[in-house]
Amino acid sequence: MGLITTINTNDERLTFSAPIMRSVLSNYLFKAPLNVNQSPSSTFDEFLLRTIERMSSSTLKESLGKGSYLPSYFLFPKTVIPENASVSSDVGASFGSVGFLDFYVDNGHCWGVELTREGGKLKKHAERFESDGIYAEIPLKQWAILDFRRNTKQ
Fold first, then answer.
1. Sign for the pseudo-dihedral over CA of 19, 26, 64, 53
2. How many domains does the chain have?
């Protein structure tokens, strides 16, 4: 068994052999140095804003779906996280949750970020954070759903 496997025998699509493999490999591959000229984020709002500022609008516009822009997004939080914190993707199982939160900033910050595209399933994403939702077991002090769109409403 390797890092990547087929989804099933009749399918040519690939997936990671285990969710933890995706997280470990993403953490290894998508590292970006902290800009020493800029201090780390100190608040959740600042963290979100500075992360989004670093994103490429062309990458979002040209991406076919969440799976294609998620690795790009993962690169940017690492450049603005608070000191002594780390960002992890697809957390959930380590906290006893059946859901997989897109991004989590630990070390006492307990910030969660869920990504969506074109307004897709916003209500469903929000329900995940409710007290009886699938993210209820994940210790979160603050969370946000970032909805990326190709076009803005006029």
1. positive
2. 1
Residue 136: strand, helix, or coil: coil
5 within a domain of the structure (yes/no): no
Nearest CA-CA partner of 129 in 148, 110, 143: 143
Contacts with 8 (C-beta within 8 Å, 6 or more apart), sequence order: none
Instruction: List strands edge to edge, sheet with 87-91.
Output: 87-91, 101-105, 111-117, 142-148
Segment 40-81, tens digit of pLDDT? 778 999 988 888 877 766 666 665 555 555 555 666 777 778
Q: Do the Cβ atoms of 23 and 88 come closer than 8 Å?
A: yes
Share of the chain above pLDDT 90, in %: 25
Residue 114, in any domain of the structure: yes
Q: Is residue 125 part of a domain?
A: yes
Residue 82 tokens, joined: 């608070």
Residue among 69, 48, 51, 54 at smallest CA distance from 117: 69
Separation between Cα atoms, residue 116 and residue 114, nearest integer Å:
7
d(CA 91, CA 135): 9
